[in-house]
Amino acid sequence: MRLEKVTVTLVGSEFPINVGYTARLIKNFGVRRLYLVEPNFDRRVASVYAAHGSDVLEDAEEIDFDGLRKGHDLLIGTTAVTAIRRANVERLTVTPEEVAGYVSSAKSASLVFGRDTTGLRNDELARCDMVTSIGTGTGYKTLNVSHSIGILLYVLSKSGLQSRRLPNLGERDMFAAYAYELALAAGMQAHRAERLRKLAKRMTLRSQLDGKELGLLVSLLRKAADAIPGETYQTRSKT
């Protein structure tokens, strides 16, 4: 897989050495751009470690999650701390190999990596479309961020999977919003309905539905929501 449609995002980076190595890796694999969310490092020091990737570091754009979301139809969060219980929706993960399949189908995708010491928070993982983790085969699963980036980019670059059209972000949001509305209308507690909304959004990717198929399901859920008498729930703005 060629990686021109892939970007890398670093959140809350503090260690210049890791940022420099990341810029170098991006140059190695032909990734088109590096984004920085809430950076807290010295770019001059980082450039020493970037070697021939120093131009990537110079062009790196500071951005917030809203801007990152607008520029990509697929955000892949990363974590070493995976869900123990299925209720921990934010940390339910797919394998790097599965990620490769989704990226091959996306118009634009960003791999999102967290802080050098604590990684991504739950609220940040919740803003991603899926989350992946690299298995080490041991109880010590935390990798240096630049090492994780290198592994994931290598997996993506070696993928020969055929692309297929994924539902776009608007279609995924609508499906999740109507699932949330129907859950509330059925009497489900708000926190459980919110968990269902998050699951529904991720299910739209893992289900292998294309945009047309998901559109039919959205139409069905819309008609069901409109048929409910009494109070209606306007929740689409939450997605």
Please tell me the CATH architecture of the largest domain by its name.
3-Layer(aba) Sandwich
User: What number is the mean pLDDT?
Assistant: 87
Largest β sheet strand count, sense and barrel closure: 6 strands, parallel
Q: Give the low-confidence spans.
A: 235-239
User: Looking at the chains present, what oligomeric state does this protein adopt?
Assistant: single chain
Query: Do you know the CATH topology of the largest domain?
Result: Alpha/beta knot
What would you give as the CATH superfamily of the largest domain?
SPOUT methyltransferase, trefoil knot domain
Distance between the termini: 30 Å
CATH class of the largest domain: Alpha Beta
Strand content: 5-15%
- The tally of beta strands, per DSSP, is 6
The Cα radius of gyration reads 19 Å
Q: Could you say how many structural domains there are in total? A: 2
Number of contiguous helices? 10
Structural class determined from secondary elements: alpha/beta
Range of helix content: 40-55%
Order of helices and strands: EHEHHEHEHEHEHHHH
What would the principal axes of the Cα set say about the shape?
elongated
Biggest sheet, strands in spatial order?
3-2-1-5-4-6
Describe what this molecule looks like in 3D.
The chain has 239 residues and is α/β, with parallel strands linked by helices. The protein folds into 2 domains: 6-158, Alpha/beta knot (3-Layer(aba) Sandwich); 169-238. The chain contains 10 helices and 6 strands. The protein has helices spanning 16-29, 43-50, 54-59, 65-71, 96-105, 122-126, 145-158, 169-185, 190-206, 211-227, and strands spanning 6-11, 33-37, 61-62, 74-78, 109-113, 130-132. A 6-stranded parallel beta sheet has the order 3-2-1-5-4-6, with helices on both faces. Strand 4, helix 5 and strand 5 (109-113) form a beta-alpha-beta unit. Helix 8 runs antiparallel to helix 9. The two termini are 30 Å apart. The model is unreliable at 235-239 (pLDDT under 50).
